[in-house]
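Project standup — Tuesday

K.O.: blocked on the structure for the chain from last sprint. Re-posting the sequence here as requested.
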Amino acid sequence: MIADGNDRTESLTDQITLEPLLDRPLAAVGAAVTPTGVAFRVWAPNATDSVAVVIEGNGAREELRRAADGYWAGEVAGIGAGARYRYAIDGGDPLPDPASRFQPEGVHGPSAVVDPAGYTWQDGGWDGLSASTLSIYELHVGTMTPEGTYEALTAQLPALRDLGVTAIELMPLAESPGRWNWGYDGVDIWAPSHNYGTPDELRALVDAAHQHGLGVILDVVYNHFGPDGNYLRAFATDYFTDRHVTPWGDAVNYDGEHNRPVRDFIIGNAVHWITEYHIDGLRLDAVHAILDESPVHVIAEMAAAVRVAAAPRSVVFFAEDERNDVNVMRSPLEGGWGLDGLWADDFHHEMHVLLTGERDGYYGEYAGTPDSVARVIERGFTFQGQEFHGAPRGTEVTDEPGSAFVFCLQNHDQVGNRATGDRLHTQMSRERYHVASALFLLAPATPLIWMGQEFRASAPFQYFTDHEGELGRLVTEGRRREFSHFASFGTDTEVPDPQAESTFRDSTLDLIERETNADTYELYQDLLHLIRDDAVLAVRDRLSSVAVARDEVVMLYRTNGEQHRLLLANLGDEVRFPLQGLAEGVPDPPRGVKVLLDTGNERYGGVRTAAVAEGGARIPASTAVLLGW
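H.V.: unblocked you, prediction finished:
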């Protein structure tokens, strides 16, 4: 649904359909190689007299022609890929291209011409991703490997394939200030970070991933632009609007005066990741802060445009939305945005409270009991309109598939936004962590693994930036204040300085821990292969699943109508668990039921497995057992 100025909601189909928007070509921007040189096009309505392309090195200067709607365009002969340039507006200081495809010297340096056609792709047999069968591995390119490059990550693809995930999700790549950054301070959103390598090295990463059977999802930020190196206002003040306010300042102008070029800029950016880099899907950051009261929300228009551009390849769209709004994953014909699903953080929060007992901040709104964990597994969200921090939160979940809910035990936010970046598995025994991991991966949802959780990585993931001067000082001071509402992070807690190089370096994974912590790695590998290959578990059917709790045991039943799977996840002391009269809709396991997986197995570092007999099971403390018949 969409809201008008009087807070009424109307069906999207009552106002407008997407077809006219899809028939209208997006306005091309940036530098494009031609047979005779390079064509340039930039939206610069602020310019009153002139916009010139200034070529680095030889000092050549070419005046662009004024075009309609504030655009300026022209061609420079005799140059090609690799040429570096800036734009000078009304004779002012030369500035980087807002649609730069590469910033080899960072956000303040010249832009570089890139020719996507110069790369020869080898992924012609790749059909794309299906949202119904995803297992996602989220990572930060700069800290996944000691080298922190696209090339080094490419070398890790065979290991990620063998782990059993079906896609990697890259944290934002947009050019950001400094030598290290999470990526959410991006200002040159068309330019993949030079800190990780060249555009062609990113293409080679995606190409290799496809040849290993892995999709690539990219985290993108369309709710704000970073402050450092942001020259957009020099070209067009209408990139922003004061109609809305976000946590990061003025909102991007999706619905104010002269919004069409802004919408084209953002939608075109999404399309370019899919077409120029063969990216298989996008994770949209904080869509609750993408404020748009237009008849068709910019994200709905974007999703449709990207799917058309990608065809016949299949692409996926997921979003982060703290509102728990299922409308974003409903069809535009139903008033939705047409996305494939949402990050469902309620599962993480319920599990975190259950496993750690922490109740600071937003954790205080979650029960964190076996029963509440079972409910969120069945329902997708905890909050579906109930009060949260004094106001209703969430919408009712009806027939949305389990694959539409992205569950996690850890992700970059939930680890990195802790004071010291400590990981969940450092706060409990290995055995208890293994039970939680089985429950997480076997739930009828889309699982997202945060890099390193599959081998209990010892490295934290801390918040790091590399801003200059006053901005850097403010970030350091703000990080300390950020945890004032968490009682567990007292004044004596040492919060790593985001600006320190050591904070970035300390967050780098030690990949040898795949071997030293092989017990956890092999558990994750076995679970991921189960949910990929098992006839029941491969189908993320939430509606036919049953999850209930009995004391400290969470029971999860899944079926395809012919075969049955029953997970008993014991987070308490040893228990004798009856296998009769389990719950409504759950049949009694027959004699000879098979044990498909037991976290107490010595393969996973266990010393005692469950004993399953007719009518009941003895489950050791902190043990999960998966039964099948």
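K.O.: great, moving the ticket to review. The chain has a mean pLDDT of 93. The two ends are 43 Å apart (CA to CA).
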